[in-house]
Specification:
With 168 residues, this protein is mainly α. The protein has a single domain, classed as Winged helix-like DNA-binding domain superfamily/Winged helix DNA-binding domain (Arc Repressor Mutant, subunit A, Orthogonal Bundle), CATH 1.10.10. The chain has helices at 18-44, 52-62, 70-77, 82-94, 113-137, 141-166; strands spanning 68-69, 98-103, 106-111. It has a 3-stranded antiparallel sheet with strand order 1-3-2. The model has no long low-confidence stretch (mean pLDDT 93).
């Protein structure tokens, strides 16, 4: 008797790697839940109307208080289409959350004081709503670290497969 797998598309399940289809279904659910969470957390922090990508870009620009270029942000997000990240930057700049500094042919982005304050409010809400719940569940952080490592490994596998598919 074959095992039933929890997948979104049974026609994609391979006998050689059924777990990969289960992973993909779980990943889709997790990504959507994560995006819903970060949008709502940022709205609670006073910045309503931002998309998930806008929130991610804001946090990356704020990361370590170092200026970032568009290419840096695309690389960190693993996004090929720089236009979508550029649109997020323009939206954040219009809301005075990031500022652009053009130097020659390069533009560097940094969070404004308001952007830094929004990131801090987000962090405070994250601590109250997410981290406190996580701790109460008694989840093991090393397991989460291993899951993160596996996601990074699998992202390389998917990138390699995307390159192979593009050459067909």
């Amino acid at each position: 008797m074959s095992a039933k797998h929890i997948v979104s598309s049974s026609h994609l399940v391979s006998e050689q790697a059924a777990e990969l289809s289960e992973f993909e279904f779980g990943l889709n659910m997790a990504v959507n839940a994560y995006h819903r969470w970060i949008v709502r957390c940022m709205a609670a922090a006073g910045q309503d109307g931002l998309s998930a990508l806008d929130v991610l870009v804001l946090h990356l620009v704020n990361h370590r208080e170092r200026e970032k270029r568009l290419s840096d942000l695309c690389f960190l997000l693993n996004i090929e289409d720089s236009h979508v990240v550029n649109y997020a930057l323009k939206k954040l700049a219009k809301q005075d959350l990031v500022a652009a500094d053009r130097r020659g042919k390069e533009t560097f982005y940094a969070t404004t004081d308001e952007g830094q304050a929004a990131c801090q409010r987000y962090r405070d809400i994250r601590e109250d709503c997410l981290i406190a719940s996580h701790a109460a569940l008694g989840h093991d952080n090393p397991e989460i670290g291993e899951a993160a490592r596996m996601l990074r490994v699998l992202s390389g596998l998917y990138d390699q497969a995307a390159r192979a598919a593009a050459s067909l």
